[in-house]
Amino acid sequence: MGVEAPAYRRSGRPPPWRDVRMLRLLFQIVVVGGVVVIGLWLFGNLATNLDRQGIRTDFDYLDRSAGFAIAGSDFKSSDPVWRALVVGVKNTAIVSGAGILLASILGVVIGVSRLSPNWLIARAASLYVEAVRNIPVLVIIIFMYIAVILKLPSIGNASELFGILVISNSGLVVASVEAAGGGAPLFAASLAVAAVVAVVVLIRRTRRFDRTGQPHHRVLWGAGTFLIIAVVAFVATGTPVAMSLPQRQEFGVTGGIRMSPEFAALLAGLFIYTASHIAEIVRGSILAVSRGQSEAARALGLTEFQRYRFVVLPQALRIMIPPLANQYLNLTKNSSLAVFIAYPEITRITRIAIGQGNPAPQGILILMGIYLFFSLTISAITNLVNRRLTYVTS
Amino acid sequence: MSETGTSAGPMIVCERVGKWFGDFQALKTVDLEVDRQEVVVVMGPSGSGKSTLIRCINRLEKHDAGRIVVDGIEMSDDLRNIQEIRREVGMVFQQFNLFPHLTVLENVTLAPRQVRHKPKREAEEIAMLQLERVQIPEQALKYPGQLSGGQQQRVAIARALAMQPKVMLFDEPTSALDPEMIKEVLDAMLELARSGMTMIVVTHEMGFAREVAGRMVFMDDGQVVEIGTPEHFFTNPREERTKKFLSQIL
Amino acid sequence: MATDTSTLEPLPIPEPDRPAYRAKPKDWVRENLFSGPVNSIVTIVGALVIAFLAYRALRFLFVTARWEAVHVNLTNYMVGGFPRDELWRLWAAVYLLTLLGGMRWGVSVHRTRPTDGRAEASWRAPLRRFWPFIVFALVVVGLSASPVTAAALLGVGMTAFIGRVAGIRVPPRGVRWVTILFILGCVAAFEVMVAFGGVPYPDWRGLMLTLFLSLGGILLSFPLGVLLALGRRSTFPAIRALSVAYIELIRGVPLITLLFMAFLVLGFFLPPGTQTPSLVARALIAFVLFTAAYVAEVVRGGLQAVPNEQVEAAQALGLSPVKITALIVLPQALRAVIPAMVGQFISLFKDTSLAASIGLAELLRVAEQINGQPRFTGHGLQAETLGFAAFVFWVGAYWMSKTSQRLEKRLGVGER
Questions:
Q1: Which of A264, B12, C30, C55 is deepest in the core (most CB within 10 A)?
Q2: What is the CATH number of domain C205-416?
Q3: What burial class does residue C120 get, using C-beta atoms within 10 Å of its C-beta: 0-12 exposed, 13-18 middle, 19+ buried?
Q4: d(CA A32, nearest CA chain B) in Å
């Protein structure tokens, strides 16, 4: 039923200034162009100014010798700058990793405590969260350093805890394990074997549960198997591992792993602060699992423990992951506050390097790049975990 | 109230209109003509393309093939054409889509003030007139959240009418309403039809169609299957598909 | 055959409906603290630990701590090295702001409960809302041991209430004027501090600087953040790429790197020969660039919450894209994210402590500097000085987070 409508008005291609497609393109060009122009102006100025002040714009300085030493490592002042950066990255990773671990544990404990039916515990946990959350993390770190660690007794009067921990104002020393005697590789190998056997036992118990419905107690069985094999191997290879206990000597402590007071303060500040945020996230996620879920679980006759294990926690976990990852990211970024208390992580080292006359623009660029790398890594891992855990829709 | 057109031709012409969503063809060479002051009811199963068609008429969707001409203006990439057509075409949605942060009065006066540049007093007069027309003038200072579904839809109608359009498009206006509120909305639409507005209504309300439709269009699978008067449809539909569809809803 | 019911026990008479179970203190204790063996042990151990910690804390606060360092330096904490003979400017500004702020507060009481006459006269509710500030005022008075300070602070409190009472009396038509008056008042307060031989903002220190950086930071970052959020959701690929790049870059790096950049490198981006901006200005720029990225994410959440149908309805009415964004999308989006924005402000408030890294004597740095004063150096008073700084931060952040929670509740239920 084709009809020739008297479209006497404006058919055919519209003029460009009214063509919506042109307008869209034009708008993009204007905005992007504006940004590019401003960017060029800024970087033009940068180049000119650097030139005038004789600051080079290449990265050769990385190979020059640093001119400063780093406490607590074997970095000498004659080593190249780039090696200093590597040490910094390592330290950042260590303090961030340890911080994430401790903060998660403490955070979960406190978050769950806030939901406890025991009024005292719940209130105490709430108090912790409300008190710590509202104080800047930098204040907590500095407080930990100046008002706590440095106020600890000196080595001579250091307190020993159960023989495995020595606390003083020059740091903490924790007992560690080290190889003693030649049986160590064999022992390590047998540990691996023990792990494999334990996993097999786990799978078999689970299958038995599927078949017969009898409770599997697989954790007990798996852990028990692992322990038995480990102990047997330990004895059979001639006790190849020994504890290195911190021994207080006259001028210091031998043995064990030492943590500088700066590291201890930074770690303590970071994980205390982040734990309060994680506690809130945990609590919020558990509460976010709708009450209908719990009601259905109860109606089915599941015990409280089963309700948590099979219904509430799996759902809460999915809700938790993005904000939790955000907190981990924040902790990693907050480790940069070590500049204030002289722990040689990457930000502090960059600052020192710049102070020694290395060019600032490149230094800051590299610094930002390193943190971006950390951020992207944590984001990528989070996305992976998230994707595996998302609910299946059609 | 529809003004008389500047030309004597049909109000809306769709000529060989096609539309793709990716690989899926939602509209396949649709030909449709709507005369001035005519009421056309479009029906069909879900996915038949009826919503897509009327959304193409006011450019909420962009058609990929064919021509759409509204009151002599062709729908193209020309910004001026699009703006003019949108001023002349009013639309009422299934989900009302009232602006929750504005009062009823503000909802209705927004477009006249911002698009037709009417002064506030005049816009409010027009608004109150339309609100009276749909019989809810007393709700003018309330917020959409405080009204029932039927009242909200009537506000939506008033909001579209305040722009004094020449054509009104209705996309399943009563489908989201509880049964007891459908009548009040249909009554408003009836009054509108009787006052001479050109309307295209996508709906399942056969009673409404029987009463005011000049023609009815049955669409299926992106095509116009059958067009005719309501009498024709209800007593003697021609196509098999039409018969099957009607048997399911009547 | 009918069942022989004669041997059945008589049915027990149902108990009359008991009134709602009101827990007597003894029962409540039993339920919440000692409901089972595990619970009881936990309670006892917990109580012991808490009592011990509380004892140590209280002993520190009231017995062993030496608060002279704080007592002597209270003014330093608040305003750093602000010339003492210009302090009248500060007090004038404070009184102006509390008066107008009180009015704005009174006006809003009016709006949420227009017919509840009782709410007007209620004194208890506002007290409950502002108790952190009252505690703060009491602590400051206690530490300063000065009747003048006490009088001044009391004056501030009374001004706020006077403003509130005045604000309640304002008719609905005048609401907009009160808000405008408040904004003008903020500008005026700033001018009082700065103009006619006053102290320009680059010289502000202490808590004053902290507040300046936080407020300035959040206000200036807001427009940039909204633009970035709109850009991120834009259908124009180039614009979206730019926005995403900025947001992800800034969010991936610590604030301190931006402060370093501002401190060391910002000057290089300006044409040669221009004067380097003041330290405070540079810090402010760093905070603005940083916060804008986070504000962008917050606003993005709000934008996503506005259903697409709203945009369609506005399009169908013929509104232009700019008008649609400004009149329909943004009002709804921004209203939805007010609690999250307050959260962002709280973060910024705490983050201003990092300005110390580039040498600015904001609140935290002042606390550290006090330890270096000749009179107090070497006395190990860090716990006291830092503790007070921490307390000030805490008061501000805690009050704001409680306000945000209240706002969330109100926005969820309100008619708008």
A1: B12
A2: 1.10.3720.10
A3: middle
A4: 23
